[in-house]
Design a protein that fits this description.
14 strands; alpha/beta; Enolase-like, domain 1; single chain; 3-stranded antiparallel beta sheet; TIM Barrel; globular
Length: about 375
């Protein structure tokens, strides 16, 4: 079985279209976290990857969409597709190895090139599982089924009562753990996190995510203010490339640290582990090497005594593939169910992730769970850019 066709399509679901105008988009949608304060979000974006075999089997993958999907789209269609077309379909990581080494030599170890390879890897794994007629989790040596999950985010609200309301809404949906966005200073962060903890009680798992809002001294001040609230982790308190700073924070707080959604390569994750800078690694399947990358990072976690808690932002192919990979990955702890408004996750046509006892479920279907609806893909196709 050989690769006959590789195609990437940029997709965008505009918030202005959803709400009837840019001025009508709620602030918690436009600026849900610290890193969107200066450049608000305008919509959900992703790059859909399709790979077809010479036997007519199609697999679907996805490249991380932010800040814009056209870069990864151009790399898949212009660079990756000519290399893979005609290649025998074997181990996806081996199939993309020459491209990976090529991008590394060009200095492209972060961003669109790695995201392009990740989307291609996901599509190849999906194709292989669909060709075999088995769920992806089965092909990976596990089984489909439920995946430990937490809901995110409780975004930036002006009033703690609004934060409490958002957290309670997740509990009513069946989730048992919640992630709260922080990054507004120790006083405001503690006010909102403390209010939520008081409202939900001690049995609910709470995590906090600063989205790189702080430097080391301010992150330590925030950690001290949050110590009383029994948090599962402090996520991305500072910029991810400051490995020494992350290690310093970890040494000086009892709150576990989490990082990894903004890393792309196995050496980058290895640096975090070697520096003892992290308790949880959080790769996103659409930028950290796809299914192959997540499994490799999981093995690294298990060897280092660190837990795997993958980032859950993405469209339907990303979520579906992540759930199957989580079922098979070593060191796995929990997966993020991002609930920000996203038609590319919920309405594109790939089998929607279902809930079971507060957990998302990897579908018992061939591949990672389905294929996108062609009409909906055309509706969200970002053209003319």
């Amino acid at each position: 079985m050989k690769v006959a066709r590789v195609k990437a399509t940029p997709l965008m679901a505009s918030f202005a279209d959803m709400f009837g105008g840019a001025d009508k988009v709620p602030p918690q949608i436009r600026t849900p976290a610290a890193h969107f304060q200066a450049i608000p979000r305008v919509g959900q974006m992703t790059t859909l990857v399709e790979i077809e075999s010479d036997e007519g089997v199609v697999g679907f993958g996805e490249c991380f969409g932010l800040p814009h999907p056209m870069s990864a789209t151009a790399i898949v269609n212009g660079v990756v597709a000519p290399v893979l077309t005609g290649m025998e379909i074997g181990d996806p990581a081996e199939m993309t190895d020459a491209l990976y080494r090529y991008f590394v030599a060009l200095g492209s170890t972060r961003g669109a090139a790695m995201e392009a390879l990740s989307g291609v890897d996901i599509a190849l794994w999906d194709l292989k599982a669909r060709a075999a007629g088995v769920p992806l989790a089965t092909l990976l040596g596990s089984t489909p089924g439920p995946v430990s999950t937490y809901a995110s985010p409780v975004g930036f609200h002006s009033d703690p009562e609004q934060s409490i309301k958002a957290a309670i809404a997740y509990l009513k949906q069946g989730f048992r753990a919640i992630k709260i966005k922080i990054g507004r200073g120790a006083e405001i962060d503690a006010l909102h996190v403390g209010a939520i903890r008081s409202a939900v009680g001690p049995a609910v798992g709470l995590y906090v995510d600063a989205n790189c809002a702080y430097d080391v001294p301010s992150a330590l001040a925030v950690a001290e203010a949050l110590e009383p609230f029994d948090l599962g982790w402090l996520e991305e308190p500072i910029a991810p490339e400051d490995v020494e700073g992350l290690a310093e924070i970890r040494r000086n707080t009892s709150i576990p640290t989490a990082v990894g959604e903004n890393e792309f390569t196995l050496p980058a994750y290895r640096r975090l582990l070697d520096a003892e800078a992290v308790d949880f690694l959080q790769p996103n399947i659409t930028r950290a090497g796809g299914v192959s990358g997540m499994l490799a990072i999981g093995r690294m976690c298990a060897e280092a005594g660190v837990q795997l808690a993958p980032h859950g932002v993405g469209g339907s192919a990303a979520i579906a593939a992540s759930l199957h990979a989580c079922r098979a990955a070593a060191g796995f702890a929990t997966y993020e169910a991002n609930r920000l408004l996203n038609p590319l996750r919920d309405d594109l046509g790939i089998h929607p992730a279902t809930m079971e006892n507060g957990m998302l479920v990897a579908a018992d279907l061939p591949g990672h769970g389905g294929e996108p609806d062609a009409v909906r893909v055309r509706a969200y196709h970002l053209e003319g850019v």
